[in-house]
Specification:
Blueprint lengths: L1 H19 L4 H35 L4 H8 L3 H9 L24
Length: 107
């Protein structure tokens, strides 16, 4: 499985490098636009797929560190994935949803 993953990943990376090396700047920009559009369309599904793996592994009591190594990301990212956080910490709300509403009993 790891060899297949490495081969497929390298194919994608090589293709992206070839795109970056395109001589015609207009054709290169158009190619970049297509890739960015595709990534934007697929990123939610990819995050869901990755989160499902993390949740399955956590259900099997696999440690965060082992999962991080297995999916080639950081420990903190694995923890964020498990919690359902999709973006950078800087984009997270500082309060829990509804925390800004007035509490019962007056304030």
């Amino acid at each position: 499985m790891a060899d297949e993953m490495a081969e497929e990943t390298q194919t994608v990376i090589d293709s992206l490098k070839a795109m970056e090396a395109m001589e015609d700047p207009v054709a290169r920009a158009a190619a970049i636009s297509e890739v960015l559009k595709y990534v934007d369309e697929r990123s939610s599904d990819w995050r869901d797929m990755r989160r499902a793996v993390v949740l399955d592994l956590r259900a099997e009591k696999v440690s965060y560190r082992k999962i991080a190594v297995m999916i080639r990301t950081s420990l903190g990212t694995v923890q964020s994935i498990e919690r359902g956080h999709a973006g950078a910490w800087g984009t997270k709300p500082r309060t829990k949803p509804g925390a800004d509403k007035e509490r019962p009993g007056g304030e």
